[in-house]
Amino acid sequence: MGREFASLTARWCHLLDVDFQPRIAAICDTNESLFGWYKNHFPSIEQFTTNYRDLLANPRIEAIYCAIPHHLHQQVYCDIVRAGKHLMGEKPFGIDKPANDAILSCLKEHPNVFVRCSSEFPFYPAAQKICDMIENKAFGKIIEVNSGYLHSSDLDPNKPINWKRMVEFNGEYGCMGDLGMHACHIPFKAGWKPVNVRALLAKIITERPDGKGGQAACKTWDNATLCCEARDPDRGELFPMILKTHRIDPGQKNTWYIEIKGTKVSMRFSTKLPKTLFWMDYQGGEQIWQQIDMGNDTAFKTITGGIFEIAFSDVIFQMWAAFLYEYVHGKPLKRFAACVTPQETAWTHELFTAALASQRETKTVEI
Asked: What value does the mean pLDDT take over residues 70-80?
């Protein structure tokens, strides 16, 4: 993901009407073999190091993108913040709730440091359209919300184990910690916080090749289905919300989706059909789902015409534009053209911690 961001800075001129531009000044990675790629493409880089503390001591660095395994988040994120560097962190913003609490406590002690969490899928044009409808309160009474992130990359039992299958590195949340922010991003920014959860968690493949000729135990959850009640802050009413994070979902290469059903309007979108927005505007009579072809109508305008298609790298571009826009201007371009806040990461930890308790106790747990 570091290389994804770096490549975006090389085409920053693709954005229109922005008054800021990032410059890659330094790289830190324990894998020095990656340095050659950066050296070949980014002459602005002045520092290559395997020790992140070297970045903290560099006065030319204003902000750091930190993509590291979950068990390192608390230590490294807090060190970055204490050094006065602005931070784009990765989900889940701490391996567990105590780690997340410690990070947020550190942020309170350094209020001048700007910190956000990575999550790019809501920047698809169709998702932004759904978000505009949320902001305009167009759905009426919320009937149900479904959101999720589905993989099939772990369906192969012969795939070697990696850190995301090891509880000491990935955490007890398993797939929820790794994928859950994507499912929660739009609902939480809408203020739809769960008040309870009944979790259905599954460990499907219990061991994998260890890369040394043997087998290693897989201790993290592969799939999670969280059945929640959430409260609509505008009406004060509860509604069902189902959040799915599956690493083993046959046929799903890498699918994010959001569906909102309301008494006036219903909408759904999936990255499986990245141009297609499904929309039902109900005013009595027949109930007809419409399909709208979405183009490149992004929150931050680009030189690409609106008639063309959007791609994954484009929505990452939008996310980074949102991060820098809010940092430079002190507020987001609009409510949903914004990155995940530290407070929103805390809400995910409340939910995932309750989900673990729900699984253990086989009952609905209040949040």
From this structure: 98
Q: Are 276 and 290 in contact (CB under 8 A)?
A: no
The whole-angstrom separation of Cα 86 and Cα 77 is 10
Q: Encoding tokens for residue 219?
A: 């201790």
| 163-175 residue pLDDT tens | 999 999 999 999 9
Judge whether 95 lies within some domain.
yes
The answer to whether 104 and 202 have CB atoms below 8 angstroms apart is no
Q: What is the C-alpha separation between 360 and 339, in angstroms, rounded?
A: 32
* Helix/strand number for the chain, H first, E second: 10, 16
Task: Catalogue the E-assigned strands of the chain.
Answer: 26-28, 47-49, 63-65, 86-89, 115-117, 142-151, 194-202, 207-209, 215-217, 223-232, 237-246, 254-262, 265-270, 276-281, 290-293, 365-366
Separation of alpha carbons 2 and 348, rounded Å: 24
Count of Cβ atoms closer than 10 Å to residue 43 Cβ: 9
Determine the structural domain holding residue 28 and report its residue range: 2-117
Q: Residue 281 is part of a domain; what is its CATH number?
A: 3.30.360.10
Q: Decide: pTM greater than 0.70.
A: yes
